[in-house]
Design a protein that fits this description.
This protein is of the alpha/beta class. The protein has 15 helices and 9 strands. The strands form 2 sheets. A 6-stranded parallel beta sheet has the order 6-2-1-7-8-9, with helices on both faces. A hairpin with a 2-residue loop joins β4 and β5. α5 runs parallel beside α10, α8 crosses α11 and α9 crosses α10. The mean pLDDT is 94.
């Protein structure tokens, strides 16, 4: 400021040339990927951390998930890992119980294959999804979903028996095939309930369907094989509910106990050594996982990926810090929210985390539960 010409207004000089104070300790320098160094996708994704904006949030999410994985792979004492009573299907407790939540549209999309990879290779411990997140996986084993366009007109699609999910298309015949496959299974479940005293829950129903589909492309085939519970407290809110409704006229009496499943998910959190939340999307799946972690005074690690905003007060849009206020994320945690479409960023996130350590996880089981 000493070199500024005399006669300038002092107030303007002071305002424009205000001296800086020190930056927060550990501040990173902004720097993006330099393509002059060649094409290296791993290095490119690593550079996101110092790129800024949501790229930096992505880089922070990579670090947060890697912290989850490090904690998960930390060996436990024999008595610490002995909590097989927490799950109706025995599953050994690890250093970090990872909850993965996802909305149904992601199963409709190709993110299904990324989720299936995580479940097949025992990389996550608890799944939470909606009815569509279950049925769309099973339906894809019976008939494909197709790429369409966001601009296709609903009236014309309806007239042709085609359902649109964003820019994806599902022929209504797929749901007819689903009904044909599902009804005999529901018949048998009612019979087992009435003659053997089986008490069904949404998670037990999903495990049964995963076993019956018997297809390694299915998320729920691998979930039941690896004893990973799948919680879906709104299981009737979708095509699966439609089929259960129709079936109730054919062979009434099926009962699904959601309270037993509530105890199941809450105890997964309560007795975990540490917990991590990876939540794709919002709504029920986001809150159901977060509320279970309230039972332990908050998750240790958290990553949200969604496009929702917080200005309307919705839980879907709420930033992680709001969950801290409720005790759903620990006060000393460093949660991350990535404002992005999960179909863009979640495969990249898995590529930089779980896929880098694939050999460290327990191998998938070869026998059904």
């Amino acid at each position: 400021m000493e070199n500024v010409a005399s006669g300038l207004p002092a107030g303007a000089v002071a305002a424009v040339l205000k001296p800086s104070e020190g930056l927060p300790e550990g501040s990173l320098t902004v720097r993006g990927y330099d393509f002059d160094h060649g094409l290296d996708y791993h290095t490119l994704l690593q550079s996101y951390l110092t790129t800024g904006f949501q790229a930096t949030n992505f880089g922070q999410a990579v670090n947060e998930i890697n912290h989850m994985i490090e904690a998960k792979l930390t060996p436990l004492g024999e008595e610490q890992g002995n909590h097989t009573d927490l799950n109706p299907y025995p599953r050994h407790l690890t250093g970090c119980t990872i909850f993965l939540g996802f909305t149904s549209n992601l199963i409709s999309s190709g993110i299904r294959e990324t989720i299936r990879y995580l479940v097949q290779h025992n990389m996550v411990d608890v799944l939470v999804t909606t009815a569509g997140g279950v049925e769309e996986d099973l339906i894809k084993c019976l008939a494909p979903t197709y790429i369409g366009d966001f601009s296709l007109r609903g009236k014309e699609l309806r007239q042709n028996g085609i359902n649109r999910i964003g820019n994806l298309l599902v022929p209504n015949d797929n749901y007819c095939k689903f009904e044909d496959w599902l009804m005999p299974i529901l018949d048998q479940m009612v019979t087992e309930q009435d003659t053997e005293g089986v008490k069904w829950t949404p998670s037990k129903l999903i495990a049964r369907l995963g076993k019956e589909i018997n297809n390694p492309e299915s998320v729920y085939y691998w979930a039941q094989k690896n004893s990973i519970p799948v919680l879906s407290p709104a299981l009737t809110d979708g095509s699966l509910g439609d089929m259960i409704f129709f079936h109730s006229y054919k062979k009434p009496g099926l009962v699904l106990d959601i309270v037993e499943d509530l105890r199941l998910i809450n105890t997964q959190a309560i007795f975990a050594r540490k917990t991590g939340m990876i939540i794709l999307g919002g709504g029920l799946v986001k809150h159901h996982i977060a509320n279970a972690n309230l039972m332990r005074n908050g998750a240790d690690f958290s990553v949200y990926i969604n496009t929702a905003q917080e200005f309307d007060g919705s839980d879907s849009g709420a930033r992680p810090d709001e969950a801290v206020s409720w005790g759903k994320i620990r006060m000393d945690a460093k949660p991350v929210k990535v404002y992005a479409d999960a179909s863009l960023v979640f495969p990249l996130l898995v590529a930089e985390t779980f896929a880098q350590k694939s050999n460290a996880f327990a191998p998938e089981k070869q026998n059904d539960i």
